[in-house]
Amino acid sequence: METRVAVIGIIIDNSDSIEEMNKTLHKYSEYIIGRMGIPYRQKGISIISIAVDAPQDVISALSGSIGRIDGISAKTAYSNCIFKGNQ
Questions:
Q1: Residue 18, exposed/middle/buried by CB under 10 A (0-12, 13-18, 19+)?
Q2: Are 51 and 35 spatial neighbours (Cβ–Cβ below 8 Å)?
């Protein structure tokens, strides 16, 4: 199986959507390397970055699922490296 490393940048401007986002992330937890969240209280938003190592289609599905949640936007940056197997 070929995988890529990517970072999904997430901005949440509706805190009511956080639970749904966390459920989505839990579904893909086997691919998540790490997560960093920063509450930006002055602006009333949260900024989260998710590092993943997964097949291209899984990364796209995760990012798309998150981006379709009301009050959340997500963009993905992919590495140029493609890994085969368990590298």
A1: middle
A2: yes
Check whether 87 has a pLDDT greater than 70. no
Contact 85, 1 (CB under 8 A): yes
Taking residues 68-85, report their average pLDDT: 92
Q: Which of 51, 65, 60, 53 is nearest to 1 (CA)?
A: 53
Structural element, H or E, at residue 72: strand 72-84
Using pLDDT thresholds of 50, 70 and 90, give the confidence band for residue 42.
Answer: very high
Q: How crowded is residue 78: how many other Cβ atoms within 10 Å of its Cβ?
A: 14
